[in-house]
Structures are given as C-alpha cells and as structure tokens.
Design goal:
127 residues, 46% strand, 11 strands, single chain
Length: 127
C-alpha cells in the first residue's frame, strides 16, 4: 500500500487559481493511473479529473472541464491539478487516487476503481 499525499490546498478568491500536487512519499511508484476527486460537506464524492499512466489521456468531470487541467511528471512521481477560474462551488476536500495499470492510456473515473488514496487537501473558494 502506498500512501499518497496531497498538497497545495488553501483559500482563494473566486476567479483565482490554485495548483494541487499529489505524490507518494518514499520509493518510486510506477504504472499508476491517477485521479482527482472532491467531496463537499453533505455531498457525495465527485469525480474531477483522471490521467493515464503515460499522461497522454485525460478526462474531466463536466463541472470542471475547461477550467482544470491534470498533468503528471513521472520523473518526480507527482501529479498536478491546475485549477483556474475557481468558483465558490469548487470548495471541497480534494483527494488524489492511484490505480496500478499496465496500460499507458487507460484512465478511471469511478472511486471504486482506485486502490490508493490520499488524505485530502482543503480547497476553499470565497466570493
């Protein structure tokens, strides 16, 4: 089991930007498809973005498409979520998740498809 660690959350005004990072501490971990999810109080966990092992395939939830960008730097074992044009409704705890796969292009959009999760980082967008 690999412990994932999210960072970069915080308080930002509406219209601002924030970049989240996710990485497994310690040893290098390869062949991870990665995903980002978020959960607001009283709401179900929501899919945000996914990226394949190769980084060549990405997918976004409808609510963030066009505003958020997921990228990865496998040399640094780090996945990023660049969040632009933030809205108050983006306020949530953001989680990264990882799933081992031998496919360089496959990604996952369901929480149940992921094995490894971080503890989450709070993103608060004020109006």
């Amino acid at each position: 089991q690999v412990q994932l660690v999210e960072s970069g959350g915080g308080l930002v005004q509406a219209g601002g930007s924030l970049r989240l990072s996710c990485a497994p501490p310690g040893r290098t971990v390869n062949r991870f498809a990665m995903g980002w999810f978020r959960q607001a109080p009283g709401k179900e966990r929501e899919f945000v973005a996914a990226i394949s092992w190769s980084g060549g395939s990405t997918y976004y939830g409808d609510s963030v498409n066009g505003r958020f960008t997921v990228t990865r730097d496998n040399a640094k074992n780090t996945v990023y979520l660049q969040m632009n044009s933030l809205k108050p409704e983006d306020t949530a705890v953001y989680y990264c998740a990882a799933e081992f796969t031998v496919s360089g292009t496959r990604y996952f959009i369901e929480s149940s498809e992921y094995d490894l999760w971080g503890q989450g980082t709070q993103v608060t967008v004020s109006s």
